[in-house]
Design brief:
- By secondary structure, the chain is an alpha/beta fold.
- The protein is built from 15 helices and 18 strands.
- It has helices spanning 31-41, 46-49, 51-55, 66-79, 164-173, 191-202, 214-224, 239-252, 265-273, 313-329, 351-364, 379-383, 385-390, 409-422, 447-470, and strands spanning 8-10, 22-28, 87-95, 104-115, 120-128, 134-143, 150-152, 181-186, 206-212, 232-235, 257-260, 286-292, 300-303, 336-340, 372-377, 403-405, 426-432, 438-439.
- Helix 7 (214-224) links the parallel strand 9 and strand 10.
- The chain is elongated, with a radius of gyration of 29 Å.
């Protein structure tokens, strides 16, 4: 087996350095650099981390921390010139102009003075941007090493910046400019189920109508310090009644969306699917998770992980169509749909592979419209180009799926929850195929997850308004 060749860092001793000698480093500022520096230093000055604030500042855009540029001088001094064994004595810098994301700095350190009695060096430090303009200059004083040091370069761990707030805001931004929609919240009688719609209201997504025991709702609000000023409350004696009343409001057109509170999913959905008083349409009702995953480049829709336990082929066709339409509302004109199984080949031993093949043919014949379907695909092939290429899969979907169609509820629920708890994904969840979108989240979900789900419901409601006007 061939051994990897180590990279080394090697210093230049005091005697090896002459006045006028220099070293350079070139580095481009990336968004992750700003986030990492802010996380490491605790400097969350909005000039660096808040795009909205930054647009109103003198720079008109997010700029990097000034001290990020200064660390580049430290990098040269500690690893190359003089290198290992160098002791920092002093640093004096002047910052001439900001560094924006995408700016490339050429950092130069030049030896200006040497002192034999204590092995000190005074070095001139200059950083210019890609336009040749001076960004930083100053001096550094160091004690140079007197003995030669050559060490294997330490391989640093790969760092992923998981900015959950940024991913949450991306979901919220899908409805920028849209007016809030009225949403009936069934039985919001615990902290998170009440905080979710209230937060969504603050974000300008919805106008919540709280349906449930008024005394209990107000008690939760008082205990948590939530303001209910201006919030409509429809009193209902218990969770079953709250579900029935909320569904009736949607059926009458009093609200454009529903939201599950602290009641069980079955209670709400039983009222929704009631043939006489519910919200059924000709389309099969299904649930979709919209996941913002830090390790995936765009939103990932996962369906069905909450409603249909073991869907039939015909039900899967409706589940796919529901998901495609939501993806199109989110700005994906021809979403790529990966139909998942454990393997990539069609085999009679696995029903999911047979269904996948049939669903792809149904799409070819126009029975499923608007998306690009492929399957069966294993999970790795659906989301990893490397895995797909390794297995020789040639596909427009493999490695870049927008929608994952799972074989059954159990596998879908596991995929979604694993992404949420192990990959730090932000999840929004809505039910489709009814007369109105229904925000359906887990009782363990945070207020942020519920608010993000409200954003998706708001988007769907507005798209349905536009479609009705077109008709």
């Amino acid at each position: 087996m061939q051994r990897a060749i180590h990279q080394y860092i090697e210093n230049r001793t005091f005697d090896e350095i002459a006045v006028g000698d220099q070293a350079q480093l070139i580095r481009t500022l990336k968004p992750n650099d700003i986030h990492l520096f802010a996380a490491m230093s605790g400097d969350v000055n909005p000039t660096h981390v808040d795009p909205e604030f930054a647009r109103s500042s003198q720079f008109r855009e997010v700029v990097g921390h000034s001290m990020w540029g200064s660390t580049l001088f430290s990098s040269i001094l500690g690893t190359e010139f003089p290198g290992p064994g160098t002791v920092y004595i002093a640093q004096s810098l002047k910052f001439w102009r900001p560094v924006s994301v995408g700016d490339t700095l050429t950092v130069t350190v030049t030896c200006r003075e040497k002192y034999e009695h204590n092995y000190h060096l005074v070095l001139e430090c200059v950083a210019n941007n890609q336009d040749g303009l001076k960004v930083i200059d100053g001096t550094a004083e160091v004690q140079a090493p007197t003995e030669k040091i050559r060490r294997a370069r330490v391989n640093l761990p790969e760092i992923t910046v998981s900015d959950k707030e940024l991913r949450y805001q991306h979901l919220i931004s899908l409805t920028a400019g849209l007016e809030p929609v009225r949403i009936a919240v069934a039985h919001p009688c615990d902290t998170e189920s009440l905080a979710g719609p209230l937060q969504a209201a603050e974000e300008g997504l919805v106008v919540p109508v709280l349906v449930g025991p008024e005394a209990k709702i107000r008690a939760v609000a008082e205990a948590e310090g939530f303001s209910l000023d201006g919030i409509e409350i429809v009193d209902a004696p218990h969770s079953h009644a709250a579900a029935d009343i909320a569904v009736a409001m949607a059926r009458r057109g009093d609200v454009e969306a529903l939201m599950k509170g602290s009641l069980h999913t079955d209670e709400l959905m039983s009222a929704v699917v009631n043939k006489q008083t519910g919200l059924r349409t000709e389309r099969r009702i299904s649930h979709v998770f919209i996941a913002e995953v830090p390790t995936y480049p765009h939103p990932l829709l996962i369906t069905d992980a909450a409603i249909n336990i073991e869907p039939t082929l015909a039900e899967k066709a409706d589940i796919i169509q529901n998901a495609i339409e939501v993806a199109q509302m989110m700005g994906m004109p021809s979403p790529k749909v990966a139909i998942l199984s454990a393997v990539e080949t069609v085999t009679p031993k696995l029903r999911s592979t047979i269904d996948a093949a049939a669903l792809c043919k149904m799409a070819d014949r126009g029975q499923i419209k608007g998306g690009i379907l492929d399957g069966p695909l294993a999970f790795d092939n659906a989301i990893s180009l490397v895995a797909a290429k390794t297995k020789g899969i040639v596909s427009a979907v493999a490695g870049n799926a927008d929608i994952l169609i799972v074989p059954d509820l159990e596998s879908g629920n596991m995929v979604a929850k694993q992404l949420e708890y192990l990959a730090d994904a932000v999840l929004a969840g809505v039910v489709l195929g009814a007369r109105v979108p229904i925000v359906l989240t887990s009782r363990a979900d945070t207020a942020e997850a519920r608010a993000a789900s409200c954003a998706i419901a708001q988007l769907i409601a507005h798209c349905r308004r536009s479609k009705a006007l077109d008709l």
